[in-house]
Every structure is written in structure tokens, then in C-alpha cells.
Amino acid sequence: MPVRQPLPRTVSLFHDETVDSFLRRLAAANHLPADQLLPLLEIRRTKKTPINTLLEPLAAAAGVTRTALELALPEFLDTDAPDKPGTIGRPRATLRRAIQRPACRRCTQAAGITLPVTCWTTHDRNVCLRHRLWIGDGITNPDEQVDISRIPDTLRAQRHHRNLITRHGRRWVRSAYPEARKIYFTWLQSSADPFDILGTARHLLTDGAGKAPSHDLTLAMVFHPQVVALTGLLAGREWERRAVATGHVTWLIKQITLRGILLGYVPKERQDPLIQWVEQHFSLHKFAAFHRSRRVYDAFFPRETIPPSRRHEEVSAETRWSPFHPYYRC
Hints:
By secondary structure, this protein is mainly alpha-helical.
């Protein structure tokens, strides 16, 4: 018979933890190999097994209620109604682009957890503002998380990133952020570093083991404010409106310098990453505007969190480009 009472030792729940991470911690607390816990619960888990079949026996074994486990682990939420309390704004575990990262090591220590915790997260959660740790791009284990107290611009960029989501909508900022990173780091590859900014930063920053971060990680942390600023510019509608009205992107190019993203920026050829992104951007929206289907928008601009049931974001997505339909038909 399946286990219907708690295991000898239970573990604390952690917000947005993955099911596999929770199973590893529960197995370790009971001195079991991770691959022996599910057979003990008499659960046969395959790729086709619905994740919710694991909910009842796992809640019983962990000594928690079904509701508490359901709210802690996002994988149990994706098949439920989106207007259920505690679900709105949670990471979507079933999304193809879903992100898994180690939880902030200081947050887990404060919760009394000694083992590493892997969480589902969203693209904008790059800094733990409470503990001033970089927990975003480039982090694969908790010891690599870097204290960024000495680069306050990166801390401010985290708040700026959240404000951009409020202003422009999560779908649009989520779509623009990886493109902004790609564009900006392509620019940096052809730029010199006369003031040795990266070298200086590596001497100031240390990870959990007291070591300097890698070059790529330092690059991501130091220039995160510029990437976020570029994200906000690309996710906004002002450059789109001006480009459609004038037929060129001069205003967008000027804003790169005016906003301190890249001083003296002038694209020298059509192969410039920003120019290529603009052409692709208009092409994608042209297709989406003529195929006014929710599935089309979800394909090009996938959701990152569970939306409210009223689907305000859906209406915004499908009407955003309607004023530009005459431009497309030219």
C-alpha cells in the first residue's frame, strides 16, 4: 500500500521549488537515494505520467497538506484554473522556455534549509534584493552567486526591470530581454575596454567560495543596467510608432546614446544586430497582426507566468498592432 503517513523526517517547503529538487531534499533527509523515494511511495513516474498523480502521496509523505504543496511547487499549478488564489503571476513550469535556477543561498539558509534548492523562476529575477546576490544568468549552483553590493547600478536595474514589466507588460518585456542581451553583447565583442572595467569588477566581486566570478558572469552583472535599459527601449511602443510614421529608425538609434546604453552608437552596416532585430520584429508582428489568433501570439510571445482569468494581457496583445494594419497593407 502507498505511504499514507509522513516519512520519519520531513523538510520545509520552499516557494517555486521544482518537484525534482523537493524529492531530492526529502530523500536526503530520510537517508535514501533520490531514485528510491518514488518506488517507496509506490509511484511509477514516466514522461507520460500526469504530474498531479504525484500530489496526494507526496503531500502525505512530506507531512503537509495538499494545498500547501500545490502552492509551493508550480508544476502542480499549471493544469488548474488560472484564477485560483495564489496562482496568478507564478512561473509556468510547462513552458518550453521555462527557467530553472538555484534559489538564493541566503534565502534558503534563512528558511533553515542546508541542501541546494532549484526553483522555477522568471526572466526578470536576476538579483535577490534582500541579500544583494546575483542569482540570474550564468549561475548554475548556489556557490556561484555573487555579492553585488559594490555595483549598486545592477541592484537598481533589478527594480527598473520590474517597473518595465508594469509599464509595458510582461509578455513584451520577456520577448525583448533575451534579444537585448544578444544585441548588447554583440556590440561589446567589437568594443575595447580601455578602462579595464571588467578586470576591476572581478577584483571587487566574490562568490560564495570567495573566488572571483568568471569573465562571462562578470560581463552579465556589470552591464546588466545597460541591457535592462535596452530592453525597455525595445519593449516600448514609442520607437514602433515613430518608425512606422517616418519609415526609418533614426529616433531609436539616437536613444541608444541618449539613454547611456552605448555612447556614440551609429550602425555602420545592415548587419548591425539592432538593425537585424528591427527587421525581424516588424516581420513577426506583420504575421501576427494578420492572424489574430491567441495561439499565434503565444507562439511568438510565450507567457512566462500564469495570467489572471480576465486575460487583460491577451486583449492588449491582439490590439497592440491593430493601428498599424494599413502600414502592413502598403
